[in-house]
Write a structure and sequence with these properties.
By secondary structure, this protein is an alpha/beta fold. It has a domain at about 35-260: Aldolase class I (TIM Barrel, Alpha-Beta Barrel), CATH 3.20.20.70. Helix content is about 40%, strand content about 15%. It has helices at about 25-30, 65-80, 110-120, 150-170, 180-190, 215-220, 220-225, 240-250, 265-275, 285-300, 305-315, 330-340; strands spanning about 40-45, 55, 65, 85-90, 125-130, 145, 150, 170-175, 200-205, 255-260, 280-285, 320-325. An eight-stranded parallel beta barrel has the order 1-4-5-8-9-10-11-12, surrounded by nine helices. It has a two-stranded antiparallel sheet with strand order 6-7. Strand 8 (about 170-175), helix 5 and strand 9 (about 200-205) form a beta-alpha-beta unit. It is globular, with a radius of gyration of 22 Å. The structure holds ligand PBG. Ligand PBG binds near residues 131, 141, 176, 212 and 230.
């Protein structure tokens, strides 16, 4: 007989979870989730002009780059090992029209930016947003008829927009508009044009979120949109089962990869989507998430270097295969330095 009664197996004091946490080597050995440079997608804002970088006040540290500056920045990102950049255009007010002709102009800012990057022959993917909000005078992602965002007519324009971007050399078409049926329509349009190799990353579960505020400053749609809501096409933040339906439809329509957006407030959705479908699943740490961490850090209230890594690791733990983050460039740089 032992001198003291045995506790139930697996219980304290025989089991002490702090043992594995005692040393750095042992914490590394048992670590479950990992953040690597390969997980990062870097969103970049592009503007007209030459040799300019314009700071975005609500996103300290983020700038809009002219195409010439963009190429250098993407080259440095490729050198850091970042697998993909995501481009977003700042479209001048004069080019915004109700019929969004600039969105389908093969010489628009996005297409010129893609061609310039591709001409540099870098080992990095280029992803382009497909949505009409930078091109409409009202800031909505679709065409507005009698005060309604019309679905099918918008989808037809989105297909044309995807085609001009893909023909310019875009590797990954990313519809962020949340119209019904756009993934299938875009896939068919690409295939019919002989662009079977172009991938589609669907903003599959995209919520109508107040966390997009600083992005709308960055692309100049904050003023055009005013206080208008996107809740007739983007999802209600109350919903979770509906996200699975959105993702299921996008997969059925031919999406190669799916995304959940925003990020940190929607990690439960990331986990459900990854578990349900096992698809390449991405999450977007959106502008408002970047801004709030940055603002707190600039006030001395949070340690930026630590919170940004912790926030990105949370996406990996939730099941994301990769994360779009405005901090991708500096985080990639830090991860590389930590290894060498
Ligand atoms: C536009 C688009 C938005 C974002 C990416 N594409 C904003 C919106 O839907 O209003 C948000 C990105 C961010 O906040 O960082 N279709």
């Amino acid at each position: 007989m032992p001198s003291h009664p045995l506790p139930p197996l697996g219980a304290f004091p025989r089991t002490r979870l702090r043992r594995n946490r005692r040393d750095d080597w042992s914490r590394r050995l048992v670590a479950e989730a990992r953040l690597s440079v390969d997980d990062l997608i870097w969103p970049v804002f592009v503007s007209e002009g030459t040799n300019a970088a314009t700071p975005i006040p609500s996103m300290p540290g983020v700038e809009r780059l002219t195409v010439d500056r963009l190429v250098g920045a993407v080259e440095r990102a490729a050198r850091l090992g970042i697998p993909m950049v995501a481009l977003f255009p700042y479209v001048e007010a004069a080019r915004k029209t109700d019929e969004t002709s600039e969105a389908v102009n093969p010489d628009n800012l996005m297409c010129r930016a893609v061609r310039a990057i591709k001409a540099a022959k870098l080992d990095i993917g280029v992803m382009c947003d497909v949505a009409l909000d930078p091109y409409t005078p009202h800031g909505h992602d679709g065409l507005l008829r009698d005060n309604t965002i019309v679905n099918d007519e918008t989808v037809a324009v989105l297909c044309q927009q995807a085609l001009v971007q893909a023909r310019a050399g875009c590797d990954v078409i990313a519809p962020s508009d949340m119209m019904d049926g756009r993934i299938g329509a875009v896939r068919a349009a690409l295939d019919d044009a002989g662009l079977q190799h172009v991938r589609v990353l669907a903003y599959a579960a995209k919520y109508a979120s107040a966390f997009y505020g600083p992005f709308r400053d960055a692309v100049g749609s904050a003023k055009t949109l005013g206080g208008a809501s996107k809740s007739t096409y983007q999802m209600d933040s109350a919903n979770s089962n509906e996200a699975l339906r959105e993702v299921a439809l996008d997969i059925a329509e031919g999406a190669d990869m799916v995304m959940v957006k925003p990020g940190m407030a929607y990690l439960d959705i990331v986990r459900r989507v990854k578990d349900a479908f096992g698809m390449p699943t991405y999450a977007y740490q959106v502008s408002g998430e970047y801004a709030m961490l940055k603002a707190a850090a600039l006030n001395g209230w949070l340690d930026w270097d630590r919170v940004i890594l912790e926030s990105l690791l949370a996406f990996k733990r939730a099941g994301a295969d990769g994360i779009l983050s405005y901090a991708a460039f500096e985080v990639a740089d830090r991860l590389n330095r930590a290894r060498s």
